[in-house]
Amino acid sequence: MSHTASNLWHLLRTGWQGGPPSDAPPDAAPDAPAQPDTDTEDAPVPIWHVCFVTGAGAGLVGMGLGIAMGLAKDFALTPVHAHINLLGWVCLMLYGLYYRAAPRPAGRLAWTQVSMAVVGFVAMTGGLWLLLTDRVPGIAQPVVIVGSLMTIGSMALFLAVVLRDALRPRRADTAR
Ligand code: HEM
Asked: Which residue in 4, 26, 65, 75 is a FRET match for 173, CA 20 to 30 A apart?
């Protein structure tokens, strides 16, 4: 395995919590309880609360916008409404449900993933709103582009989290 591939493998297995890759065999102690995850246990709120609060807030705003569009019979902001509901309400709630049920502590990789998802969601929907209402046109498009790249980046990181969780040894208290 190349050096880069070996580092990526280490990252997936440890979720960015370890030091440099060691030479120990990857499956040395599959039944040993994992080390406490200080990143997660020291966090002021669990990661799923961040997802649920942001997701429910987005759902309220998205549905409110839907009602406002219906009342005004003006559907110009339909793409904003759709993306607030789908990226904010649906995606963030699904991320939260995964982290709530995950057999592993979240760790830095997961916090990076959720942070990127939230920032990407705000940038993409805010940028779309600026674009469709013709406000600061020079800024709106780059904001949408950056937001959408962060959004797809967060989905790539989510895949990395899921793969990491599938590959790391289970915690004894959550083994099933
Ligand atoms: C109170 C709740 C909601 C209201 C009042 C509402 C209202 C609307 C309205 C008025 C439109 C525009 C329809 C048109 O252009 O003819 C629309 C489009 C859309 N809505 Fe909602 N909506 C609600 C909830 C949701 C939720 C929860 C989601 C997704 C999870 C969603 C996803 C979409 C999508 C994807 C479109 C675009 C459909 C298309 O262009 O074909 N909406 N909604």
From this structure: 26
